[in-house]
Amino acid sequence: MSFTVAIDGPAASGKGTISRAIAEHFGFAHLDTGLLYRAVGNKTLTQGDSPEIATKLAQELTADDLNADDLRSAEVAQAASKIAVIPQVRTALVAFQKTFAKQPSGAVLDGRDIGTVICPDADVKLFVTASAQVRARRRYAELSIKDNSITPEQVLADIKLRDARDAGRDIAPMIAAPDAHLIDTSNMKIAEAIAAVIAIIKARHDQNHSV
User: With CB atoms 3.0 to 4.6 Å apart as the test, which of 8, 39, 100, 129 could cross-link to 65 if both were Cys?
Assistant: First the structure.
């Protein structure tokens, strides 16, 4: 019996770390769906970001593209957010995500529209968030290691810009599904957040397998 966990939330909320930990704990496959958009966005930086070009790049995306260097950079993040609003790009990437979610061994997918669009029937839905200030501090600590020219103010501005774009787009906006569990990590240690999510998933998993 497959078991799907959908985890949504804004940048630097902790959803990626939580998703990887959950997948490892339960032996589920994991897909960071944001990497699909980042990989396409990364290619548009050199090949152009018109809807036509971005759609072609999305259709030709391969697994190797998900391992490209610098997919976590601020520049790629903004490029990914821009192309994510293009309907044809989303269509090209949705099928891959839906197929991944049906793995017999179970699957964890994290992104921004997993519980609302990709896996509306997921067994467990979570929306992981934190304040913009907290998320900016986390992202700055990560990015400043590679780029000492970046400033905390710049990172905060980028976070707010991406939040507005992701939540305000007409297609698959970043919103919590009505039945999603809200996890606010602003004042939580990552171990606490992971433990809370494990408890939620275990309760539902046990319930499913007792039927």
Answer: 39
Output the pTM of the full model.
0.84
Residue linked to tokens 């939040």: 163
Amino acid at 111: G
Task: Give whole-number Cα distances, 19 to 62, 111, 164, in Å.
Answer: 22, 10, 23
For the chain, what is the mean pLDDT? 92
The shares of helix, strand and coil residues in the chain, as percent rounded to the nearest 5, are 55, 10, 30
Distance CA 114, CA 174 (A): 9
Residue 185 exposed, middle or buried by CB count within 10 Å (0-12, 13-18, 19+): buried
| pLDDT at 211 exceeding the cut of 60 | no
Q: What is the pLDDT of residues 62-107, one digit of tens each?
A: 878 988 888 988 899 889 989 988 999 989 999 889 988 999 999 9
Helix/strand/coil for 118: helix
Least confident among 67-81, 114-128, 187-201:
67-81
* Full set of structural domains in the chain with CATH: 4-201 (3.40.50.300)
198: DSSP letter: H
Phi-psi region of 12 (alpha: psi -120 to 50; beta: other; left: phi over 0): left
